[in-house]
Each structure stands twice: as structure tokens, then as C-alpha cells.
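Final report, results section. Input specification for complex C-07:
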Amino acid sequence: MSAHRTDAEATIEREMRVTYGDAPKTLRDEPLAEMSWQMLGDSFLLRGEGHHYFHYRKGEGITVDRGPDADLSEESLWLDGSVYAAVASINGLLPIHASAVAHNGLVFAFTGPAGAGKSTLVAALGKLGLPMFCDDTLVLDLSDPARIVCLPGHKRLKLRPDAVNLTGTTPLEAVSKTVDKVYASPSGGDVSDSLPLGELVFLEEGDQAVIEPIIGAERFVRTEDDHQNAWLFAGARRLDPLAQFAHRARLAQQIRMARFSRPMDPSRFQVGVALAAKYVRNGAQQ
Amino acid sequence: MTALAKLTDRFTEADIDSEIVIMRLDNGEFFSLSGTSAAIWRLIDGGRNRDDLLAALSDQFDGTGGEIGRDLDVFLRELRETGLLAE
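Structure output:
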């Protein structure tokens, strides 16, 4: 339980409340295809497989409409994934595709494309005593112009079977029937307070394990994100090019960034993990 | 010699560390400036002319006046060609 809930925490908790019932089947003139979403004003509609709809309208929470063919094992994935990111975006919060640990009152987030090793690294850092802050989606509160704050939540760690073995994490139940991942308890525990973002680290593959700061205009370039979370934010905020530039410039100016290159060879995995743990414990670039 | 002026209604810019990112408003094209080019960009204030810039740059950077002048002229031409600097 967080000692003091911020306005953003209260907003996301209130807006993520779920009820079950009838949901609209489209927000536009055309029908909504399976595994796709629509956003219109302050409303969001996602369709899973078959008759499985997730409708959100600002101020009204989420309505889940389950038909007989809905795959319930997928439901929490939709709610914790795209729906969570859409609700955050519609409420002015920025979801980014990252997993994170916390140390000394700061969040150290690791980002990269699917398969880059975000969750695996966070699980391994947990084994070294660094508590998890989030897995897969990190929500940023931009309301304070002076700093960027990370919202806690989205805690369940999901790992592929090879990552369970690699990190020595104890597996829990399967994530769903179709996703080859299991839930796992973070070995280092987790954090439930909002914390400032300390650093955003981009995971890359390289011959040697090395962490280098990203400086200057490259930070601006790195704010361009082709992940669905960025599309949801862009759709929700409807920023014109000038506002989009200002948004990206602010992120580039206020977020310390680094690249973490390391071999993807499992036999050298722990070398990279040790380097990342040392980097975080030293306060990264501070 | 006339003062050099940016066409400020045609772009927006942001400082990121010591570098500058510029976006043209008409087509969304981005530019990044660092080192000498960032220094030149910062010196263009609507009051200084080409020789004023050259003098200021000679104080900041190593190199002969001829070398710095050539770099300056190339960069000013690029700025005019991209529509960021008045003719």
C-alpha cells in the first residue's frame, strides 16, 4: 500500500475499474475487426478474439463484454496491456514500453522491442535485490513540468520459459493459453510508490556488455517510439506537430538515457546483469 | 554587410544538452546541430553580420580565420537553402 497516493495514481485506479455488460461494437461507421482497437475522443474500444470487447470512456471506467467464445485467459492481458495504456493516455499519462526496477527512490527503466530482454533483465536484477517497479508498460506522469514521475502498478512479471531458467525465477501459472509465458514473483519484491524516473536504458545487442550515456540530439531521436503505446498516446492526445515536437523535446531534455549493449548469448547473461546492477546501484549517470 | 536573421516563423527548436534540434514547420523535417554549427546558430541573433560571427567563432574555436570562414559560409548557405535564414 502506497503511503501517499498521487492524483495520477488515484486517476488510473478510478478509471481502470471494470464492470461486465454490453459494450458498443464499434466507435465508428465500420465494424471493428478482431484483435484491433479504435479511439474516438475520450473513448476507446478494443476487440479481442471473437465476441470479447473492452470499452472505456473517460469518467465511466471499463466495460468488458464477453461472448461465449471469449478467451478469458486473455482477458487480463488485454486489460493490463492495451487497455491500461489507452486509459493512461486518455487521462494525459504517457505509457512507454519498458520494464523497470527501483533503487534509492528512483526508477531505472529498460526499454526495447519485444524480445529485447526487458522482463528477463528485471527478473535477474530482482535476484540481486533490486525490486521490480513494473513489467512491460511504464506509465509516466508528466503533470509536474519540473520532473517526470513513474506510476507504480502493472506488477505481474511475465517470463518466457527460457527466461525463467536463465534467471532462476520461480514460475507461477501460465499467462494464457496462447502466450508462451508464465507469471513469476519478482525475487526482489516490488515497489508501490510513485517515484521519479532516474534513467531510461535502451537494450541492444552487442559483442561486449557495456552501458554508455546517450547525449544530445540522439535523445530526441530516441523519443520516437513505434510501439503501440506511442500510437495510443498520439491518438488520445491528438497533438499537432508543434505540440508533438515540444512533447518530445521535453522528454529528451528531462530523461537521462543510456544504451546497454550486451551479447544475447545465455552463457554471458550474468556478466551483463552484474554490469546493469552495478550501474543502477551507482545511480547510473548521476 | 547586413545582419543575419533567422526566419523564426518557419521552425521550432529545442536545446538538448549542447546540441540543438530544429523542426521545419512546413514539412516536419528535423535537423540537429552540434559543435560549430550549433555555435553559429546561437550567434545568429538578427544583429550580427557574417564578419561578426566569424570574429566570435574565432574566439571560441581553434583553426585559421580562413578555415572557420569557409565552414561558416558553407553552413550559412545550407541554412538559406533550407529556408531557415533570410536571404
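The first strand of chain B starts at residue 11 and ends at 16. Chain B touches chain A at residues 12, 14-21, 23, 25, 28, 30, 32-34 (CB under 8 Å). This concludes the modelling results for the funded period.
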